[in-house]
Amino acid sequence: MTTERRRFVVFILRGNMALFKKEILRNQRGLKSSAGEPLSFTREDLRGIAANFRSGKVWIPYTHSTDPRDNTGFVQKLWYDENSNSLWAEMEVDDQATERIKKRLVQDVSVSLKKDEKRGWILKHVALTLDPALTNQKGFMEAEAGDFQIELNDLEPFVNVNGTTEENMADQDTTEKVEEQKDDKEERVDLEETKGLVAKVRELLDFAGKNKELEGNNKTLQAQLEERDKRITDLEDTVNESKEAISALLEDRRKSEWEAVFESYLGKRVVRAEKEMLAQRIADPAELKAELEARADIGLTENKTEEIKNDQKGDPLANLTDEQLALVKERGWDKDENKKYLHHYLDQLELEEQKG
Question: Considering its fold, how many domains does the chain have in total?
Fold first, then answer.
């Protein structure tokens, strides 16, 4: 019997995908189908599911969905584990599903199976779910894989001259197949050419890895720049607050020094009105001191005092010295109803001082 087999080397680059190992099925008491029918799986059943598996055909949706938009990836490997007596899968999922799995937002899976009369149970898909029929599942475990993988896939099955498929030839002698493949030299993939392709793919992978490293460095640098800008803003705020505080302190110091100069040269010899006028005209303590030292007559003349009194528009309190004003306030003479009698009170104070 003559057979023909087409072989193709297909390089599939996967990016932004992650691999996880996960227990997906085992025989468990009380296990039921979605229709409520009881289910039971022997070791042979589980081995048969693994034997019927074809990579890239079993999809991984959210909650048994058949909508392509809900698909997160595909099962890459399927095997039966003797120790745990359960079926395990190597699942490749996208970054969104990866994030949910790592955050433990998804911890379980639920399988969809169909029964073939000849081949037995066949795995259709493995759904990410929060309500699995199989309880106490072993959790997701990250598989060792990089961001990219290389796969060699056979795109077409064995076909003989009569059109018999590979499934119908499963019982033929393995040795015969091997000998026939060796004779079919025209369809063999050149090994050296394959090695060259693999080398080129590795160069691409190295380049992609370097780009990813640079991207990570850029993100780190951006974060450092943002932190620097924040610190600069905080320092500017602190400097502005310090400037305001320093300005307030300097103003308090100026007033204190001005008061000291005024008391030293004029003391109680001027009324409050002239003091306020002097403060408005000369704010700097050093300038005030220079002017007062240059004056031959320190204090107010009677004419000047009378002029100031006339400028106060009848407010007698403005014509008192600080000492007199304090005494008037102490006795309650500063109230509006008493101001018109203030000159009598001041005469009384003067008599008291003379008697004293």
Answer: 2
